[in-house]
Amino acid sequence: MSLLGQKLFEGEIALVTGAASNIGRAVAVRLAGEGAQLVLTDVDDGRLKAVAAEIAETGGTARSIVADLSVKDGWHTVRDSVADTPPAIFVHSACPKRHEVDTALNVSEETFDAMLTTNLRSGFMLGRDVARNMVRDKLAGRLLFMTSLHAFTPRNLPHYSASKAGMTMMMKELARDLGPAGIRVNGIAPGAIPGGGFATSDDEFQPKRKIPMGRFGEADDIARAAVGLLCNELNGYVTGTTLDVDGGLQLFNWIDFPQN
Q: Which of 47, 52, 132, 239 could form a disulfide with 62 if both were Cys (CB 3.0 to 4.6 A apart)?
């Protein structure tokens, strides 16, 4: 269903990574509702096909590509699959699961490498390749990277925070180079969105105290923001920026001060 009653991306091809669940799935469904033709990629074949079927049931079109972006050349599978039909929209939402035990002194080399390869290396290589085709075909393309508030604030998960910090600068570098070609590159930093790599309870996190808007976010909160940021008619002069979609979470200091 379109947010504004019209198909904002009618006929455009949109590639979404990490599309099998949570934020990636929500973004893909929203883009399909705006008329985009979806190319979905994820490592989870079963859930990926379920998302493609969900889009098809509502009259949209989607095809799926199973690829593991945590390995060095995993992004080649996606690149080769879209070579003949280059997307005008690229959303990089793929991210390995986060485990609270993987702190600075505990995270393994394999876990560290998988996080940086998925988020940073594959995101850059795939995004750059897609952008080259946008330039070649003179598309008014858009790239969107799901970064994090923890690009600037420690998360006690160094591999995750470092990868998101790198993604933020990568986004800016791409925006600077691609702007003259009419291609916009931006990021979204989600707040506390249960599911995927974040799971907690209201009692544990106390969202009414930590989040000014008094609730956890939902994947669709991010998807709606993505639609607005990707739409050239609404935000055609916005590039190289990160939009915080967090209910105001970043307004709080991480230290718990006494209530009195």
A: 52
Please tell me the distance from the alpha carbon of residue 250 to that of residue 63, in angstroms, as a whole number: 36
180 burial level (CB within 10 Å; 0-12, 13-18, 19+): exposed
Cα dihedral sign, 238-239-245-246: negative
Please check whether residue 69 is in contact with residue 75, taking contact to mean a CB–CB distance below 8 angstroms. Answer: yes
The fold for domain 13-251 equals: Rossmann fold (3.40.50)
Q: Does residue 260 have a pLDDT over 50?
A: no
Report the alpha-carbon distance of residue 38 to residue 55 in Å, rounded: 9
Structure confidence by residue, pLDDT tens digits, 53-80: 999 999 999 999 999 999 999 999 999 9
Distance of alpha carbon 17 from alpha carbon 21, whole angstroms:
10
User: Residue 175 CA to chain centroid, in angstroms?
Assistant: 16
Q: Which two tokens stand for residue 82?
A: 């879209």
How far is 89 from 226, CA to CA, in rounded Å?
11
